[in-house]
Write a structure and sequence with these properties.
The protein is of the alpha/beta class. It contains seven helices and eight strands. Strands 3-2-1-4-5-8-6-7 form an eight-stranded mixed beta sheet.
Length: 239
């Protein structure tokens, strides 16, 4: 496996969760809670970037999308429903098999691949990579690989936990400690703060665009916010 790959232990950990990935009350419940928040940001970004009608039902028709670290397809399927020709890749074969089965049941055509990003050819109008970079062996090389697959004029969207004590407390101490997220999912030493991320992007020839926090509160649950302390989602382009 190449330097940009999710490490073997990470792939095994997430592969073990394949059986109930689509269960909103299962081990991946937190991803299901994140889903509408992330989709809101993605839809707003693609509408602005590609100058699309915000009321259009399938705005990505005629465009290609790549979802990196796709899991069992939680994001790949909505991208396909938005009209994109979707390719999705993950290091865990078990997740890809679960993704293929679920997409078939939904009547969706998605090109799922098990393997390393380095092994993939081609460029895409939209590249998404959500909650993945904190699990890879070499973040700098990984961002460069993402850029290699981004077509000129394309849009990259990523999300990741921030490197703060608040994020450590909520994500690891609280969520993993209480079983809301499977134990061992996160390693705080792998968390990346926004300025470090901006540097990784610049080194790869990318420029960070819009950035929003994904915050949590008893009243609102998970929601987009100016507060970046817990988690953040951002766009990037090739200048």
């Amino acid at each position: 496996m190449g330097k940009t790959s999710i490490v073997a232990s990470e792939a095994a950990h997430f592969g073990s969760l394949a059986g109930d990935w689509w269960d909103p009350d299962g081990d991946s419940a937190m991803l299901h809670k994140l889903q509408p928040v992330r989709l809101q940001f993605i839809r707003d970004c693609i509408d602005r970037h590609f100058d699309l009608d915000e009321h259009r039902f399938r705005p990505l028709t005629g465009r290609s999308a790549l979802d990196v670290g796709c899991g069992a397809g939680l994001l790949a399927e909505p991208l396909a429903r938005l009209g994109a020709q979707v390719t999705a890749i993950d290091a865990a074969p078990e997740l890809i098999e679960a993704a293929k089965a679920h997409a078939a049941g939904m009547g969706l055509s998605i090109d799922y691949r098990a393997g390393d990003l380095d092994e993939l050819a081609g460029t895409f109008d939209l590249v998404t990579c959500l909650e993945v970079i904190e699990h890879v062996a070499d973040p700098a090389a990984f961002v460069k690989a993402l850029k290699k697959h981004l077509a000129p004029g394309g849009l990259l969207i990523m999300s990741t936990p921030n490197r703060t004590e608040w994020s450590r407390f909520l994500t690891i101490t609280l969520a993993e400690g209480m079983g809301k997220i499977p134990k061992g999912t996160h390693d705080y030493d792998q968390f990346i703060d926004p300025e470090a991320m901006r540097g990784l992007l610049a080194a790869a020839g990318l420029e960070m665009g819009e950035i929003m926090g994904i915050a949590a509160s008893p009243m609102k649950g998970l929601h987009l916010s100016e507060d970046l302390r817990l988690n953040y989602i951002f766009s990037a382009t090739r200048p």
